């Protein structure tokens, strides 16, 4: 969906106001068009407009 696939490494900006944070992690695609980004500390919900793809899922394990 929108060029993303489950397992891709992404960088996203999520939140609003004082709680804006940048997250780096693996993406999980939802049928609604939003994403779950799984990071080392947990997960966050994101949209495609604020997400940049860093690495495609290619079978290699990238560290973050």
Question: What would you say this structure looks like, in words?
Answer:
Helices cover 0% and strands 47% of the residues. The radius of gyration is 11 Å and the shape is globular. It is an all-beta fold and 64 residues long. The mean pLDDT is 84. Strands 4-3-2-1-5 form a 5-stranded antiparallel beta sheet, with no helix packed on it.
Structure described in brief:
By secondary structure, the protein is mainly beta. Helices cover 0% and strands 47% of the residues.
Keywords:
64 residues, five-stranded antiparallel β-sheet, mainly beta, 0% helix, SH3 type barrels
Helix/strand layout:
Layout lengths: L8 E6 L6 E9 L5 E5 L2 E5 L4 E5 L9
Antiparallel strand pairs: 1-2, 1-5, 2-3, 3-4
Oligomer type: single chain
Describe the main β-sheet briefly: 5 strands, antiparallel
Helix content: under 10%
CATH fold topology: SH3 type barrels
CATH-derived architecture: Roll
- The string of secondary-structure elements, in order, is EEEEE
**H/I helix tally:** 0
Strand order of the largest sheet: 4-3-2-1-5
> Rg from C-alpha positions?
11 Å
Q: From the helix content, strand content and strand pairing, which structural class follows? A: mainly beta
Which descriptor suits the 3D outline? globular
Measured by DSSP, the beta-strand proportion falls in: over 45%
Low-confidence stretches: none
Number of strands: 5
């Amino acid at each position: 969906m929108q060029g993303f696939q489950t397992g891709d490494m992404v960088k996203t900006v999520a939140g609003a106001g004082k709680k804006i944070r940048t997250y780096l992690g693996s993406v999980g695609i939802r049928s609604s068009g939003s994403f779950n980004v799984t990071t080392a500390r947990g997960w966050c919900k994101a949209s495609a407009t604020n997400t940049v793809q860093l690495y495609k899922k290619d079978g290699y394990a990238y560290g973050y």
